[in-house]
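Field reference: sequence -> structure
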Amino acid sequence: MADSAIGSGHADIGTRRDFLELVAWSSAAVGAGCLALPLIDSMNPSADVLALSSTEVDISGIDEGMAITVTWRGSPVFVRHRTGAEIEEAEGVDMGALRDPQTDESRVIDPKWLVVSGVCTHLGCVPVGNKPSENRGEFGGWFCPCHGSQFDTSGRIRKGPAPTNLPVPEYAFTSETSIKIG
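Structure field:
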């Protein structure tokens, strides 16, 4: 009878030990979670960074044939209100003559408006050509004076060392007079 009392006592001790171990590990897991949450939250972008992720551009004041430069994510973006002649020229280019072939239709949402990154794909210079008085190169688009790259009225590389076209950022028309970039 004494043996059975000892055996049942061991079962109780084992059960209490298992319970204490479960409580200890559970507390450690909750503590680790409480420490990890602020660390993980600190990796989220701050409010000022989220504000830079997109920009609204009022295009109502841009006359046909004019272009403006806006800043998005710290880089220039060119927004050009193209003339009928510029659109016709961009659409009429032979794809075989292009180093980085892209149709004009694949680069624009509305043919009247071209939105491209204002950073040359050669060495990161900023091409000129947004002002009518600036050199637009042989193809009427943009000219990078640093190394001589020339882009057409669709922002495609036509001459010079730049390997690819000026990138088209993600953008959408939010109204007839406004574009959201980003």
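Note: DSSP finds three helices and nine strands in the chain.
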